[in-house]
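Meet our chain:
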Amino acid sequence: MRTNHASPEIIQLTESGPGRLRRLRAALRVAHPDAVVTGREALWLNGIAVPPVGTVHMVVPLKRPARADGTVTVERTPHMPDPLWRRGFPTAPPARATVDACRRAPTTEQVKQLVGAAIHRGGVPMGELHAELVHAPARGTTLLRRTLAEIDRGVRAVSARAAAELVDRAGLPPPMWTARLRTVTDVHLAVVDAWWDEIALAWDCDLHQPWAPRAGTPALARAARLTAVGIVPLHTDPLRVRADQQTVIDELRGAYRLAAARPRPEVVMA
């Protein structure tokens, strides 16, 4: 360990360096009292093992002073995280920490490693990463956006195969996948995941965003809108498509029988 004589408060690291906790304490001494640890160090404090790379990254409210030197980067942000206290340090929640860490990662490989650690070792939901990305500065997010888009495509493909297998196991005819519905007077109704046109049965299992399923009021309002024009709607949480298959199969069969037993309403595909 050696001290930077230009800034006596800052501990500069050799290759071996002090422990990470000591490094964080040194960084906090030069940051504003409102600072919150984010990035790699916040992931580590939250129990997600990632190696330390670069400076300790902290965020402060917009009105606080920013700072950047060889040991700490203090970034001003309009979206301060609600800190979680870990080992005596105020830390950003894992999803926010992941996005901030990825914004400073120079390669796609590093971004994939950080995202993989967050999802698989930290249990960070994809939906939370997407939500944090909405508020993140555009600068530095290109690699993360590409990585998430690649993961999204894979997740959607797996979900689509699982849904198709359930329809086949239920003994139902193949539906039209991703159908846009409207009334005969050209009023848009919804885009549904699966549509049996001959009986006007709609099935939603959030194929396009299985990491952020519709729930509560939005799902109920959507079902009510379809029911009001005579469609039989069935909504299945995407987790149940794989975790509760037999029950979902029974629900598909029941919905199909119900739709087939009544006159077809006047709705069309756009």
